Amino acid sequence: QQQVKQSPQSLIVQKGGISIINCAYENTAFDYFPWYQQFPGKGPALLIAIRPDVSEKKEGRFTISFNKSAKQFSLHIMDSQPGDSATYFCAASSLRGGTASKLTFGTGTRLQVTL
Amino acid sequence: NAGVTQTPKFQVLKTGQSMTLQCAQDMNHEYMSWYRQDPGMGLRLIHYSVGAGITDQGEVPNGYNVSRSTTEDFPLRLLSAAPSQTSVYFCASSYRSFSGELFFGEGSRLTVL
After folding, report:
1. In sequence order, what are the residues at sequence separation of 6 or more whose Cβ sits closer than 8 angstroms to the Cβ of residue B65?
2. Which residue of A has its CA nearest to B34?
3. pLDDT tens, B16-32?
4. Contacting residues of A for B41, CB less than 8 Å apart
């Protein structure tokens, strides 16, 4: 049972374009939604995160949009650059009950930004 | 500041062999966990620990054992390796109060023949 569904599996975007990755979750107890970025041969690293009290969070070229009623959230990368080429994972957890660190991850999206 | 250190980085085992993947962190994090990463499956939680002496199962615990005798170390043991355990394993840690970030090691690539 995949509690966090992520799409697309892979994505090719031209330099300067917008990259969009979508995730959907099932567990209504989830209230913390981070995105992790992973480069080849490295471990994932936190990119940006959102909590459901806001519908959007922006950090530089990266924006998370959150739709609580639809149980969906997405990552938008504006002005995509070749250096953004990596695998992106969405994740979710519950901040209650001391299990906030117990992240459930999506299946990942491999992003390639071409020149 | 080393962060989360995993050893070995690469390992090849034969079916039925045992081994231990080591994980150490120097950030005084209470929470530590092990994930496996497989193509098309994302990262799946194997075991986790909220402090020394406390461990619990994640999503895919079968075939793996863990212990947490110190805050710094969280080894993952494969008692009898199977080809299905061929994967990349990641150790991660965070403050139990969860500052909002899970810190990952660089991974250990395991191949079981």
Report:
1. B76, B77, B79
2. A102
3. 999 999 999 999 999 99
4. 107
